[in-house]
Amino acid sequence: MGRAVTVAACALNQWALDFEGNLERIFKSIRIAKSKGARYRLGPELEICGYGCSDHYYESDTLLHSFQVLEKLLASPATQDIICDVGMPVLHRNVRYNCRVIFLNKKILLIRPKISLANAGNYRELRWFTPWSKARHVEEYFLPRIIQEVTGQETVPFGDAVLATKDTCLGAEICEELWAPNSPHIEMGLDGVEIFTNSSGSHHVLRKAHTRVDLVNSATAKNGGIYILANQKGCDGDRLYYDGCAMISMNGETVAQGSQFSLDDVEVLVATLDLEDVRSYRAEISSRNLAASKVNPYPRIKVNFALSCPDDVAVPTCMPIQWRHHSPEEEISLGPACWLWDYLRRSKQAGFLLPLSGGIDSSATACIVYSMCHQVCLAVKNGNAEVLADARRIVNEEGYTPEDPREFCRRVFTTCYMASENSSQETCNRAKLLAEQIGSYHINLNIDAAVKAVVGIFCMVTGRTPRFSVHGGSSRESLALQNVQARIRMVLAYLFAQLALWARGMPGGLLVLGSANVDESLRGYLTKYDCSSADINPIGGISKTDLKNFIQYCIENFQLTALRSIMSAPPTAELEPLVDGRVAQTDEADMGMTYAELSIYGKLRKIAKAGPYSMFCKLLSMWKELCTPREVASKVKHFFRMYSVNRHKMTTLTPSYHAENYSPDDNRFDLRPFLYNTSWSWQFRCIDKQVNAL
Predict the structure, then answer these.
(1) Which CATH architecture does the domain made up of 327-446+497-570 adopt?
(2) Which segments constitute the CN hydrolase domain (predicted)?
(3) 465 — pLDDT class (breaks 50, 70, 90)
(4) How far apart are CA 417 and CA 48, in angstroms?
C-alpha cells in the first residue's frame, strides 16, 4: 500500500549573503538525505540567502542572487526524485514575502509565504517582510526568466495551500507560526494533512530548548500527525547563535533528535515513519473527527510522487525516544564556544586575546575558549574535514592536526594579566595558574608607567593632582583615576591583539574578547571604553549566577582546579589602592546591590515589563520576609537611578552572545532611551505614596 515514509530535516550553518557557501551546504544536505533514503528534504528558514540579512532584504541584489541559487538547485541532478523545500525571499506583486519554495524534478510545486512574522525580541521580520493574510487562498506567481528556462513553467501557485502526494498530504509552517496561538497545523490537521513541516530560524536562549520541543510534540499530541522541524545553526553574522535541534515527532512523541550545539556545518536528520500510525491515532479521537467534518478545506496541489514505496511491509520504522536536554552549564560551555569558532574562522583572524584579571567573568570567558578548543579537537577526531581545514588555516600550518585542546589553545588564545599598583598578588597568581591549566599563551605586564604618563599630562596642564578617596580625594577624583586604569587596559589589549603574534614571528591578528556579564551591563557597572570594549563578548548575555555555576561545571568536567580559588574570592575591580597589601574594593559594595538582586531587577524590568512602580509592587510580595516596604522602595529607586544614569553605556556595548531574555543590549533587543530624567520624580512619588500607606 505504501505506508512507510522517509523524511529529512536539516540543520545548516548558513551565513548571511554567503550565497556560494549556502548553496554548497544545501546541496550537501540534499545528497545526504537522498543517500539515507529520504523522499522529502526540509531546510531552515531563508536558507538560500541566510536568515540574518537584515536591511539587505531591501536590496534587489538579495532577491536576484536568491533566484540564481534556486536556478542552480532546480537544474542539478542532485535534486531529482526528492521533494526539496527551501527558504528564500520572494517579491510578489511588489510585496516582499518570506517564503518556502517547494520543488520536485525541475518543477516548482508551490511557493508558500509566511503567515505569522516574528517581530519580538531580536526579530524584526515586519521591517522587511509582509505577512500573507489571505487564508487558504492561492494566486499565480510569474516566475523570473532564469527559472522559466529551467522549469518550463511560466506561473506557479503562490499562497496558503497544501501538497497532496500519491500517498499522503503535507502542509508547511514557518518558524513563528508554530508559536502562534492559532497555528496553521491545527486547521491543516483537521483537513487531513498528515505531515507538518516547519522551517525555523530560531536562536539559542538559555533554558529555551524544551519550549520548542514541547510545542512540536504538543502540535501532534491532540491532532495526530508527523511534525518535521528544521532549523538554522551557528553564527550567521551577528549576536545570535542558531541552535539547530532539528527534530521529527509523531503523535506527540519525539522520534528523532538533532544536536543543539556542534561544529558540523551540515546535519541531516532522517526518520522512516508509518502513515497508518497517524491514521489509527486520529481514528479514535472523536472530538477531532467532529471538528474535521466541519473544517474549511485547503487548496490542494496534486503531486504525482509518493514519499513511500509500494512494497514497504518489511521496512523498519523509527520508535519514540526520550529527548536529552543540556543543563544550563552545558549550554554555556557549548553555545558560546561554537559561536566563537564561527566568528573566528569567518573573520579570518588568527585567534583571540583576553585581558585575564583572575576574576570570575574573565575566567569564565577563558573557559569558554578552552571549551571551543575541546570542540575543535573532538570534531577533527570524528572526521570533520571542514573543521580541520579551518584549524590549519587559522594556525597557518598545512599539515597540522589539533589533537590536544591545551596545545591548540596555546596556538589560538593569548591571555594577558595587566597589573597595576592596585592589583593583588592573589589575582595575578590565579590568572597565571588558570592560563597554565588551559594552555593559553600568557603575558604578564604592568600598566603603572602608562597610567602615570596619562595622569601626568593632566597634572601638567591643570596644575592639579587628583587623588583616590582613601588618600583624601573626592569621589569624582577617585572615579576618574579608576577609569584611567581601565581605559589604559583597553588600549593595551588592542595593541597586543594587533602585534603580539608579529612579535612572536607569526602571521595574523587577534580578536579582543570582552568579559562583562549581563548584570554588570544592566547596572552600568563598567567603565565606558575599558576592557568591556572589545570585538566580541561571549558572556555579555549571561548572568553572574549562571557564570558561577558554569565555573563549578568547569572544575568538575575540565579538571581546572585553578578555578576553586577564583570561585571563593569576592568579585573586585582592583582599581582602588590596596589596604595593607590586600584588596579593599568589592563589586557588590561598589554597586550598592548584590548580583542576585541585579538578576531579579533585570528579569522584572525586561521580561515582566516592570517600571519602577510595578517593580516595587512585585518585590513587596517577593521580599516580604527579607525587607520592609521602605527598604524595598530604597532598593528599587537605587537600581533605577543607576540603570538610567549608565544607560548611555549600552550604546557602545561590545557585541555579545545573546543568551538571556533580560539582556540590556541596545542594538536591537532592548530598545530604550539613553538620556533619562534620572530623578524619576513621578514614578518615585507613586512608590513613596504606597510606602506611607503601608
Answers:
(1) 3-Layer(aba) Sandwich (3.40)
(2) 5-275
(3) very high
(4) 44
